[in-house]
Design goal:
- With about 70 residues, the protein is mostly helical.
- The protein has a domain of about 40 residues.
- The protein is about 20% helix and about 0% strand.
- The two termini are about 20 Å apart.
- The structure holds zinc ion (ZN).
- Zinc ion binds next to helix 2.
Amino acid sequence: MYYRHSGARLEDFQDPGGNSALRKATKHNPRNLPCPTCGKPNRLTPADVRAGYQCDACADRAERGY
Ligand SMILES: [Zn+2]
């Protein structure tokens, strides 16, 4: 089990217990923004973008170094 410690509470994550750092999409935080890295639409919420995140696929690539 691996958590990124960014000061967010567990329930803020879309996938508690998983390895995604992305925020959960809500009515006030819709997942309607493209990933800045791969450009795929509807990958990130405004909270994700404010935190400087990219989508899970890009984050995995970046963390694994390939
Ligand atoms: Zn991406």
